Fold these 2 entries.
Entry 1:
Amino acid sequence: MSAGETPGAPIELIPLKEALKQAGISRSTYFLWIRKGRIADARFRDRNEWRVLTPDEVESLKRESLRVIDTRAIKRAPVPFRAPKSDAS
């Protein structure tokens, strides 16, 4: 329960499609972030088992989508050098 919510009050829930639109991310990115542990999965599901998010969860998605990562810290495999092909025909 967030600060300002009263016990027993209905919780505003946003369908996943709308939440992703508000956050500016794709469905595949959302599920990738869950698999990688960058975000938690939706706390609630509707009666059809579809994900619905709270406004706090949508704000968390927005923050994550705007997070900047220093790519110099990411270890990458070295790219092998290939000499240019000569046109000796």
Entry 2:
Amino acid sequence: METLTGDEARVAEVADVEWPKPWSSDAANDGLSTFTDPHEAGPDFLIHGEYVGKVGGELDIAAQVIAGGDGKFEGVLYGGGMPGAG
């Protein structure tokens, strides 16, 4: 398993999990279903994504919502907006 760095490491540390890189053989053999058609992915796919807005009409805020399946989700909040948004 590869060592995570930067934001990936901080998220993994907070969640107390070790995540494989998406391109690793561990991820490819995890036994989970993979979908290429959003209609087949299920209702969680509709919520999974990135959201941006303002708090109090002034402070930029963003969230990344990751569907875990069976109605379970993880989220990461960013004060100041999405990383890389400038």
